[in-house]
Amino acid sequence: MSNEHMRAQELHARLNASPVRGVTFPEPPTRKQVSGGRKAWKVRGVCEVCGETKEYWVDNILFGKTTQCTCSRGVKHGGSKGAKRHNLAAQRWAERYDAILQRCRNPRNPQYADYGGRGIELRFESRTAFVLYMLAEYPDVSPTGLEIDRVNNNGHYEPGNLQLVPCRVNLRNTRRNVLVEYEGLSVVASDLWHLLRTDYPDMTLGRSRTTKLALEGIHWSDIVSRNGRGAYTPGKLDIVDPDIVALYRSPLDPTIH
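Structure tokens predicted for HNH endonuclease:
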């Protein structure tokens, strides 16, 4: 076995252990002629995200200059004319994975106490596995404006327990919110007024008073029957938000947990 062949095998082993995201190297690298008459090592890598086979400079990988396929890197820095549409979504999912990873595994992350600190785990074998899963589950959906929510709020980030929800829904799916019962629904206490005011337009209590009573454990039927002092004068916050009502009324929206 020649020295060059042995060197190629050694580099191949190092490449397979490199931190290049989502790229595999099925064959050992080869030396190729470059400018100035010298030779340099290049290797063919297959991207698991875009499916393309491309050539990479081995030195750039080993010295940390190349960390991912150019399809993701190009989109991250503004995209390119040749970028495929799904690459943008892949990059966004990859960014979500990184954020979840920090919340679940980095004790110095400000959100760690609410996630990793209470046993919530990220149960995907790799960043690429997560991206491919999300692309398969939501092939025609852009993650922009949506957030990844756990169906079981006490469960893990794992296949089968993830759903996409608008930000306003995800903010309501937290342990800090106090839930009250209203006609078989679990409603965030601060949202109850919007539903009551919609169903009982003659109700005279304002939003803040309704929320306070709900937090005190007063049943919604008792809240409706109470009268405010004098004629009802809506306050600045006493405006029914149809989007909040739709969260509980639309069959297309996820159930509030």
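Residues 179-249 form one domain.
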